[in-house]
Each structure stands twice: as structure tokens, then as C-alpha cells.
Design a protein that fits this description.
Family: Belongs to the oxygen-dependent FAD-linked oxidoreductase family.
Pfam families: FAD_binding_4
Distance between the termini: 39 Å
Number of strands: 19
Bound molecules: flavin-adenine dinucleotide
Strand content: 15-25%
Number of helices: 15
Radius of gyration: 22 Å
Helix content: 25-40%
Domain FAD-binding PCMH-type: 48-223
GO molecular function: FAD binding; oxidoreductase activity
Keywords: FAD, Flavoprotein, Oxidoreductase
Strand order of the largest sheet: 15-12-14-13-17-18-16-19
CATH architecture of the largest domain: 3-Layer(aba) Sandwich
Structural class: alpha+beta
């Protein structure tokens, strides 16, 4: 369907008309706008490439303010249209785009600045981590942000942010010194340790429940190259591999400059199942002993070693956009029995997906992300976050993410069956880890599926805090009712 880009405020869509009446017609893009197709295509996942009534692309905080003021008075909430918000558009289904309503696209708020005297980087919500790192590199500093350069700043930081630096500096949200945020009414406030400190804490992992954040002020640190080794290992070595991952997860805090992701994956391009370890030293120490256990495992191809800048490392991703994905995280104790079970489950998932789509049409990406318990203490020392990890200060954990991508653009018909298979696998893993006494409550929001209760997994005290802050800063429940995407505190039981 094509609509006219009518700047007189008679598009027939109440929220688009309200934006045009608020003198934002230059920022409004109806489906007839030449830019509209590229705005839809900019979404990372095919699941989220929806066609809203219109996009609005504010360029300044003041335009975000006018956008929210216009939209919050464009209807009393009874009409069945809604608003979606996107920064980098890497979020999951149902979180960042909408069919019946307006999508606020924050991609123009993408500036990165650096205040050397305060050692603080100011980062626009619509920036992507690769560009942030490249801009900060010129000042000789880095920040705790995404591992993949194409991921957006806003969603990543609002959901916590697991980074190569997490063991050293905490989740990325722990490095946010100040949030500039626009509330439902259009009022702009700053939230930090001194002003609106309840909101500051709530925003550290509390997601999109309070307003639209326009800028994040982040603690910076001196830039150093990353030393990165990537190993590809055959599935017949899974026992040694799991023991090495588990040993790494139990390393003492003195190893906090090291990070890793371990994967079991079927890659349709290579047509093989393999295990992979991406081993990172954030102080550029190629001789770190943190990964010694991996060195003894035979590899399928020679390991690759690099010493590269944070910006360069963030751009080496092989995770392409334009696929249809299904994924779920669970958190488990650092228990090799459960990790072995995950690898067994990969084998049955592979057979199931092969039967549904054929070998060429899917890839699997099951990954283990170590979460040593001392990371929780970093968050507490930096003012506290919402993730609730400080409930468990004794047991080292692993965030396990089971995900699948379907490559064919016309994979929509197969998607429900594939989704069910991934979901069923996760349920089996959850049941097994419970039976071993190794399940953990935490569901990491940034990877969470819409079917999971990420906020509820933060624990009662943090749910209460998020609820109170949402009530206080959004008393009309605009971000609960009108902006339904993402994880909403009103939906937590
Ligand atoms: C290839 C890839 C790699 C990834 N790597 C990592 C990783 O290393 N570590 C990790 O922790 N996560 C990772 N993720 C997950 C990622 O953190 C989330 O998908 C995150 O939501 C992406 O942020 P975004 O700004 O791109 O998302 P968006 O889709 O734009 O937003 C996500 C959610 O946040 C809301 N939102 C966005 N901006 C604002 C704002 N300014 N104010 C209020 N609400 C807002 C949106 O409405 C939506 O609900 C990865 C994802 C992908 C696809």
C-alpha cells in the first residue's frame, strides 16, 4: 500500500498527523518517502523488517522531545495503534518496530564526543559501536561496549551489555555515568549518581520502561589493542573443550583482562559442525596463560592470532544481517555436565533442522559466555544495576544462548517449526540443569526471547525498583501502553 507524504497533517494516521502538526514533517517518512524502503531494510533481522504507518527520525534531543510530546497527545490510548523505538535495530522480534503505528528511529542521534578532562565519552543512542570505537580511538581511549561493531548503542546499554571488558569493568551499563533521557511529556532530564539517582540505577539493565535515552555518558579507559585467538575444533574433542571452558570460567579475578566466547555451531557454508573458541586478552598480552587448556586441543584448521584495535576487532564479525533468527538464553552454573548436555542437544537440533529446511538453509550458533561471580561485585561498587547478579556471589555461571538463523529470504513458512525446535531444546536444557541443581534464574535481556521474562529474572527487589521508577517517571504509563515492544515491567507478574 502507498500513502502520500502529505505535509498538511492529513495522512489519515493520527500519530503521523500529530508529528506533522508539531512541525516535524521533515523528519516523518511515510511509505511513499524515497527513504522508507531503506529504513525498513536497515533492521538486522528479517523478523523485524516491518512496515509502520510512518517512521520519524529526530535529529536532536529537542526533536525527540517534540516527537514524544506530539505522540503522547495524539490519542488517549484507546485506538489500537502503537509506537516502537529503535536505535541500532539489532533487537529481537516484537521489540523495535511495529505495523500499526509509528516507529521512532533514533539512528540520527549518533554523535560521539570525548571530554578528556573528565575522561567521559558522550555517545548518542543511535550510534553503532564500531563508529564509537573509531571516534574514540583518535583520542587514545576506549569504552565498554558491544563486541560487534554493527550493534547499536541504545538497546545494548539499556539491556546491560556484555562486552570483552565485562570481567574488568562490569556490564557496559555499569560504566554509564549519566543518561540524558526524554520522558513521556517531552521533558528532558539527566540521571546520574547525584540527580535522579533512582532512575540512573533503574536504567542500568531496566530496558525501555522509563523514557527515550538520547545520550549515554560513559567512563572511558586508555585504548589498547586486543589480542585475539580463534580456534576451530572438531566435535570429537567436545569433552576437552568443555573442560577448558569450565576451567576458564573458574579463573581467579586476577585473570579479569581475559574474555572468551565458546561456540558449537553448524555453518551451512562450510557444511560442518565445529566447536570454536574466541579468546581475547584486553591488555594485548598474547602470552596470557588464561587459555592454556585450549592450546592442547587439536584444531581443524590452524588457530588465528591477531593484535588489533577495538574498532578493528568489532568489524571482523561474520554474523550477517538479513536472516530470520530464533534464539533463547538461559543461565547455568559452571557445570560441565550441563554444558555437555547442551552439546548433545545441538546434535539433535541439527537433525531436526536438517529435516525441516535442508542442510543449506540454516546455521546454528550455540554459545557459552562465562560469567564469573566477581562481575556482580563490580556492578555493586559502581552504584548498582538491575541485573540481580549480586544475589549469587559464590557460583560462577555461564550464559548459554541457543540460536538458529534461517538464510533463505522465503523461510517464513518454516520459521514456526524451527522456532518450536529451538524453544523445545532450551526447555530440555533448563529441565536438565534443574535436575542437576545447576539452573540459575538470570535471563539476560539482550538475548532474551519475547516468550521469556527477562525483567522478572532480576529478582523481587529489582523488579520493585524498576516498577517504582517507571511509576514515578512515566505516571501515565505511556511506555507501558503506547510503546509495548521489549520487556515491560507491567507485564512482570
Ligand atoms: C550480531 C549481534 C551481536 C550481538 N552481540 C552482543 C554482545 O556482544 N553483547 C550483548 O550484550 N548483546 C549483544 N547482542 C544483543 C544486543 O545487545 C541487543 O540486540 C540490543 O538490543 C541491540 O541494541 P540496538 O540499539 O541495536 O537495538 P534496538 O533493536 O534498536 O533496540 C532494542 C530495544 O531497546 C529499545 N531502545 C533502543 N534504544 C532506546 C532508547 N534510546 N531509549 C529507550 N528504548 C530504547 C528498543 O525499543 C528495543 O526494545 C548482539 C546482537 C546481535 C544481533
Amino acid at each position: 500500500m502507498t500513502y502520500n507524504n502529505n505535509t498538511q497533517g492529513h495522512t489519515g494516521f493520527p500519530p503521523c498527523d500529530a508529528l506533522i502538526s508539531a512541525n516535524l514533517s521533515h523528519a516523518v517518512h511515510l511509505p511513499s518517502s524515497p527513504l522508507y524502503p531503506s529504513l525498513v531494510a536497515a533492521y538486522w533481522s528479517l523478523n523485524t523488517r516491518r512496515r509502520p504507518w510512518c517512521f520519524v527520525l529526530p535529529v536532536t534531543t529537542s526533536e525527540v522531545s517534540r516527537t514524544l510530546a506530539a505522540l503522547s497527545s495524539a490519542g488517549d490510548g484507546a485506538g489500537d495503534w502503537h509506537i516502537a523505538v529503535r536505535s541500532g535495530a539489532h533487537g529481537n522480534d516484537n521489540s523495535n518496530n511495529i505495523e500499526k503505528g509509528v516507529t521512532i528511529d533514533l539512528s540520527q542521534l549518533n554523535a560521539t564526543t570525548y571530554d578528556a578532562a573528565a575522561n567521559i565519552a558522550g555517545v548518542g543512542t543511535g550510534a553503532r559501536w564500531g563508529n564509537v570505537y573509531a571516534a574514540l580511538d583518535k583520542h587514545g581511549v576506549g569504552v565498554t561496549g558491544g563486541r560487534e561493531g554493527i550493534v547499536g548503542v541504545g538497546g545494548f546499554l539499556l539491556g546491560g551489555g556484555n562486552s570483552w571488558y565485562t570481567a574488568r569493568t562490569g556490564f557496559a551499563c555499569d560504566s554509564v555515568i549519566n543518561y540524558e533521557i526524554v520522558l513521556f511529556s517531552g521533558v528532558v532530564v539527566n540521571a546520574n549518581a547525584s540527580v535522579h539517582s533512582d532512575l540512573w540505577r533503574a536504567l542500568k539493565g531496566g530496558g525501555s520502561n522509563f523514557g527515550i535515552v538520547t545520550r549515554f555518558d560513559l567512563e572511558a579507559f586508555p585504548a589498547q589493542n586486543l589480542s585475539i585467538t580463534t580456534r576451530t575444533i572438531g566435535p570429537d574433542h567436545s569433552d576437552e573443550f568443555i573442560d577448558a571452558v569450565s576451567g576458564f570460567t573458574d579463573l581467579a579475578p586476577s585473570f579479569r583482562d581475559n574474555a572468551m566466547i565458546a561456540l558449537v555451531t553448524y555453518d551451512s557454508e562450510e557444511n560442518r559442525i565445529s566447536l570454536q573458541s574466541i579468546e581475547v586478552n584486553t591488555r594485548n598480552d598474547a602470552n596470557t596463560t588464561a587459555f592454556d587448556a585450549f592450546k592442547h586441543i587439536p584444531t581443524l584448521i590452524p588457530a588465528t592470532k591477531q593484535s588489533i584495535t577495538l574498532a578493528a576487532s568489532s568489524n571482523r564479525s561474520e554474523l550477517g544481517s538479513g536472516t530470520r533468527g530464533a534464539g533463547f538464553p538461559v543461565t547455568i552454573s559452571n557445570d560441565p555436565r550441563v554444558m555437555r548436555y547442551c552439546i548433545e542437544q545441538h546434535a539433535s537440533l541439527f537433525s531436526d533442522l536438517n529435516a525441516i529446511t535442508g542442510l543449506q538453509n540454516f546455521s546454528t550458533l550455540l554459545n557459552f559466555q562465562p560469567l564469573p561471580s566477581y562481575i556482580a561485585e563490580i556492578g555493586v561498587k559502581k552504584g548498582g544495576n538491575m541485573l540481580g547478579l549480586d544475589r549469587n556471589t559464590t557460583s560462577n555461571m555461564i550464559i548459554f544462548i541457543g540460536s538458529v538463523v534461517l538464510k533463505a529470504p522465503d523461510s517464513e513458512d518454516q520459521y514456526p517449526q524451527v522456532y518450536q525446535k529451538v524453544s523445545a531444546m532450551i526447555q530440555r536444557i533448563e529441565a536438565f540443569s534443574k535436575s542437576m541443581g545447576s539452573s540459575q534464574e538470570f535471563i539476560y535481556l539482550n538475548y532474551a526471547n519475547a516468550a521469556q521474562d527477562a525483567l522478572g529474572s532480576y529478582g523481587a527487589a529489582n523488579v520493585k525498583h524498576i516498577r517504582q521508577a517507571a511509576n514515578k517517571y512515566d505516571p501515565h504509563r505511556f511506555f507501558q501502553k503506547r510503546v509495548p515492544g521489549g520487556f515491560k515491567i507491567d507485564r512482570v507478574g
